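Example 3.2
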Amino acid sequence: MLKLSVQADEPSWLDLLPGVRVRVRPATPAAMIAARAEAGQAYRPEHTPEGEGAPDNRRWNAAELLVRALARYTIVEWEGVGSAEGEPIPVTPANVDGLMKVWRAFDAFDRLYVMPVLAEGEEKNG
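Structure, written as tokens:
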């Protein structure tokens, strides 16, 4: 049985790193479609490896693009993220990409947000 909750529409906080947390909105169908489209860019010809024996990392690149895109679409607020000078910075797509370049933040966002969203989709389809 699919259980609907009005509270599922409310943003929630995720602790990514000590002193760093992000407020995320729930993943909507539109955000998932847009993120999947961005992830699909990994399979375009300009992203395919060239030459015999070249590693084919398209799946991994697609996974990275999916996580980064979902971060851009869903992070609406944060605490503990600042400029090189230590000043707080606003949540913008470029700044979210900067946060996702930090491996520990990327990994935490993937584990705490993306994987549960994808697992929820699998449960509904199963």
